[in-house]
Amino acid sequence: MKNRIRSFGFALEGLLALVKDEPNARIHIVAAMIAIAAGFFLHVSSTEWICIAFAIAAVIATEAINTAIENMADFAADGYDERIKKIKDVAAGAVLVVAMGACITGLIIFTPKIIALCSMN
Q: Domains of the chain, with CATH numbers?
Protein backbone atom coordinates (compact mmCIF):
# COMPACT_ATOMS: atom_id res chain seq x y z
CA MET A 1 0.00 0.00 0.00
CA LYS A 2 2.85 2.38 0.82
CA ASN A 3 4.30 1.90 -2.68
CA ARG A 4 0.92 2.66 -4.28
CA ILE A 5 0.67 5.91 -2.31
CA ARG A 6 4.23 6.85 -3.33
CA SER A 7 3.37 6.10 -6.97
CA PHE A 8 0.34 8.37 -6.73
CA GLY A 9 2.60 11.11 -5.34
CA PHE A 10 5.02 10.70 -8.25
CA ALA A 11 2.13 10.99 -10.69
CA LEU A 12 0.98 14.20 -9.02
CA GLU A 13 4.55 15.56 -9.21
CA GLY A 14 4.52 14.80 -12.92
CA LEU A 15 1.24 16.65 -13.45
CA LEU A 16 2.51 19.64 -11.48
CA ALA A 17 5.70 19.68 -13.56
CA LEU A 18 3.59 19.50 -16.73
CA VAL A 19 1.54 22.54 -15.74
CA LYS A 20 4.56 24.45 -14.43
CA ASP A 21 6.89 23.79 -17.36
CA GLU A 22 4.65 23.49 -20.41
CA PRO A 23 2.83 26.57 -21.76
CA ASN A 24 0.56 24.41 -23.94
CA ALA A 25 -0.55 22.46 -20.90
CA ARG A 26 -1.55 25.72 -19.22
CA ILE A 27 -3.55 26.67 -22.31
CA HIS A 28 -5.35 23.31 -22.13
CA ILE A 29 -6.06 23.84 -18.41
CA VAL A 30 -7.56 27.29 -19.11
CA ALA A 31 -9.67 25.83 -21.93
CA ALA A 32 -10.83 23.07 -19.56
CA MET A 33 -11.80 25.63 -16.91
CA ILE A 34 -13.77 27.60 -19.51
CA ALA A 35 -15.57 24.42 -20.64
CA ILE A 36 -16.38 23.51 -17.03
CA ALA A 37 -17.69 27.01 -16.30
CA ALA A 38 -19.76 26.95 -19.50
CA GLY A 39 -21.11 23.54 -18.52
CA PHE A 40 -22.36 24.88 -15.19
CA PHE A 41 -23.72 28.07 -16.75
CA LEU A 42 -25.51 26.24 -19.56
CA HIS A 43 -26.75 23.36 -17.37
CA VAL A 44 -25.35 20.49 -19.42
CA SER A 45 -26.75 17.01 -18.86
CA SER A 46 -24.98 14.15 -17.11
CA THR A 47 -24.19 12.58 -20.46
CA GLU A 48 -22.77 15.84 -21.74
CA TRP A 49 -20.64 16.14 -18.56
CA ILE A 50 -19.23 12.69 -19.26
CA CYS A 51 -18.25 13.77 -22.78
CA ILE A 52 -16.70 16.99 -21.49
CA ALA A 53 -14.78 15.15 -18.76
CA PHE A 54 -13.41 12.57 -21.19
CA ALA A 55 -12.45 15.28 -23.70
CA ILE A 56 -10.59 17.26 -21.02
CA ALA A 57 -8.86 14.15 -19.68
CA ALA A 58 -7.87 13.02 -23.18
CA VAL A 59 -6.32 16.38 -24.07
CA ILE A 60 -4.37 16.71 -20.82
CA ALA A 61 -3.22 13.08 -20.89
CA THR A 62 -2.11 13.36 -24.51
CA GLU A 63 -0.25 16.59 -23.73
CA ALA A 64 1.50 14.80 -20.85
CA ILE A 65 2.49 11.89 -23.10
CA ASN A 66 3.70 14.32 -25.77
CA THR A 67 5.80 16.16 -23.20
CA ALA A 68 7.30 12.91 -21.93
CA ILE A 69 8.17 11.85 -25.49
CA GLU A 70 9.72 15.23 -26.27
CA ASN A 71 11.80 15.22 -23.09
CA MET A 72 12.97 11.66 -23.72
CA ALA A 73 13.81 12.49 -27.34
CA ASP A 74 15.79 15.57 -26.28
CA PHE A 75 17.64 13.45 -23.73
CA ALA A 76 18.45 10.77 -26.32
CA ALA A 77 19.60 13.10 -29.07
CA ASP A 78 22.96 14.79 -28.89
CA GLY A 79 21.97 17.35 -31.51
CA TYR A 80 19.51 17.80 -34.32
CA ASP A 81 18.30 14.52 -35.76
CA GLU A 82 15.64 14.23 -38.44
CA ARG A 83 14.31 11.04 -36.81
CA ILE A 84 13.88 12.80 -33.46
CA LYS A 85 12.09 15.66 -35.24
CA LYS A 86 9.67 13.18 -36.81
CA ILE A 87 9.01 11.50 -33.44
CA LYS A 88 8.31 14.85 -31.80
CA ASP A 89 6.13 16.03 -34.69
CA VAL A 90 4.02 12.87 -34.61
CA ALA A 91 3.55 13.18 -30.84
CA ALA A 92 2.53 16.83 -31.22
CA GLY A 93 0.16 15.80 -34.00
CA ALA A 94 -1.53 13.38 -31.62
CA VAL A 95 -2.21 16.26 -29.23
CA LEU A 96 -3.63 18.29 -32.11
CA VAL A 97 -5.99 15.47 -33.13
CA VAL A 98 -7.29 15.02 -29.58
CA ALA A 99 -7.63 18.78 -29.03
CA MET A 100 -9.60 19.10 -32.28
CA GLY A 101 -11.85 16.26 -31.14
CA ALA A 102 -12.39 18.05 -27.83
CA CYS A 103 -13.26 21.27 -29.67
CA ILE A 104 -15.76 19.45 -31.85
CA THR A 105 -17.26 17.84 -28.74
CA GLY A 106 -17.58 21.28 -27.17
CA LEU A 107 -19.20 22.71 -30.28
CA ILE A 108 -21.72 19.87 -30.43
CA ILE A 109 -22.62 20.32 -26.76
CA PHE A 110 -22.47 24.09 -26.34
CA THR A 111 -23.60 25.54 -29.69
CA PRO A 112 -27.28 24.54 -29.43
CA LYS A 113 -27.39 25.78 -25.83
CA ILE A 114 -25.82 29.13 -26.75
CA ILE A 115 -28.18 29.52 -29.72
CA ALA A 116 -31.17 28.76 -27.47
CA LEU A 117 -29.91 31.24 -24.89
CA CYS A 118 -29.44 33.96 -27.52
CA SER A 119 -32.86 33.37 -29.08
CA MET A 120 -34.51 33.92 -25.66
CA ASN A 121 -33.30 37.54 -25.66
A: 2-119 (1.10.287.3610)
